[in-house]
Amino acid sequence: MDKIIIITTNIAPYRLRWCEELSEHYETVIYYTKDKEKDRDRRFLKHGSEKCRVVKLNNKNDRPEPLCFDVLKVIRRHRDDLILFDGYGPVTNILGLVYCKLIGKKVVVNVDGYALGEKRSFLKDLLKNLIVSKLCPIIFCSSEVTKEHLVSCGAKRENIYVHNFSSVDRARILEKPLSDQEKTELREKLKIESRKPIVLGVGQFIPRKRFEDLIEAVKNCSTDCDLYILGGRPDEKYLELTKDTDRIHFIDFVPPEEVDDYYKASDLFVLSSQTDVWGLVLNEAVACGLPVISSDHCIAGLSMVDGNGIVYETGNIQELTEAIDFCLRPDSRKKMSLRSLQIAGAYNIESMVERQLPVIQQYFKNKL
Questions:
Q1: Structure confidence at residue 41 (pLDDT)
Q2: 0.85 exceeded by the pTM?
Q3: Is 312 helix (H, G, I), strand (E, B) or coil?
Q4: Homologous superfamily of 171-344
């Protein structure tokens, strides 16, 4: 049986779900480098699967940016299999890509997006262009926006295959938006006291999420609404921002399988990040039928906001405030919710794999 060998950093639930979907068609083995991520709660990551074999590469002291030389043994062992590098940036992946180039092994590289809005570096950009143009012969990527970026880095357009990146199964996508009554019942279940329109933000309290912008925008809204930020414990900086208002509420880490209830209980989702390689929380919000607002530095926002919300200038609090007020209008919410569910139909894990399979089949036929 043909095998797919996936080399990645850590195993997020959505990453594992993608690998498991591939395993329905090909034997799939995952090699990963670390069990924790500085910007993620450790409870979020997975360490095994019933469908895929999962192997941790040698990472002494569980270093955050490990260089695992045993990736070379993996490549030699699987010379006749398809090797799929999940990302071109991790140093272990770079080592593997260079080695495959030297031995003439053609590989596939998966690219989620790119850090739009991050401070540019000439040397960093030069290295990225060299890796993309010289070491990535076949690329799976998240969206047309990402594809154009990769082309600008030197990748050949005809070797890039867009799969519409997602963390959501088809089964998670709502058939229709929830009614006000259904949202009320969910709020009671979650012990959410608010009966006002709810704006939701999801993520850890780290600078690049720019939750301070979202807090200020909701405080300034003319609409009487509440903001819930889910995913961590706020530090003094955020508590200070909220001391003069009762509109802001914080919810600690919630297991991935329970997050959807918070999306469904809300009325609007906002992704306010300074930079996100993609922004999977937006996929999840869209699948739950929410109108969405995204900063213009999030690739998911540039790819998935189309009649179902607004993309605003990153850091522009006045523009964000006006966008929230507009999206919370009853007529806007209804129309945008329906549109979100239409878009979600093209962004799910099963569709990702369906788009990848013809390329994989061609690979095994030695036609790529």
A1: 54
A2: yes
A3: strand
A4: Glycogen Phosphorylase B; (3.40.50.2000)
Rounded-to-integer distance, Cα 166 and Cα 152, Å = 24
| Residue of 76, 140, 134, 80 whose CA lies nearest to 108 | 140
User: Token pair 């006006």 is at which residue?
Assistant: 322
pLDDT, residue 39, reads 59
pLDDT of residue 302: 97
228 neighbors 196 (Cβ within 8 angstroms): no
Instruction: Using 50 as the pLDDT threshold, list the residues of the chain that sit under it.
Output: none
Opening angle at CA 362, ends 356 and 364, nearest 5:
105
The DSSP symbol for 60 reads G
* Cα angle for residues 324, 328, 329 (degrees, 5° grid): 125
301-336: b or e for each residue (b if 16 or more CB lie within 10 Å)?
bbbbbeebbbbbebeebebbbbbbbbbbeeebbeeb
What is the pLDDT at residue 256?
A: 78
> 3-166+348-364 falls under which CATH superfamily?
Glycogen Phosphorylase B; (3.40.50.2000)
Looking at residue 105, its amino acid is K
Look-up of token digits 């996929």: 283
Rounded distance between C-alpha atoms, residue 368 and residue 366, angstroms: 6
Contact 223, 323 (CB under 8 A): no
Non-local (6+) Cβ contacts of 179 within 8 A are none
| Residue type (1 letter), 34 | K
Enumerate the β-bridge partners of residue 240: none
User: Distance between CA atoms of 212 and 228, rounded to whole angstroms?
Assistant: 13
Q: Are 3-166+348-364 and 171-344 equal in CATH topology? A: yes
* Tokens of residue 283, six digits: 């996929």
Show Cβ contacts of residue 336 under 8 Å, excluding neighbours closer than 6 positions. 291, 292, 307, 308, 309, 327
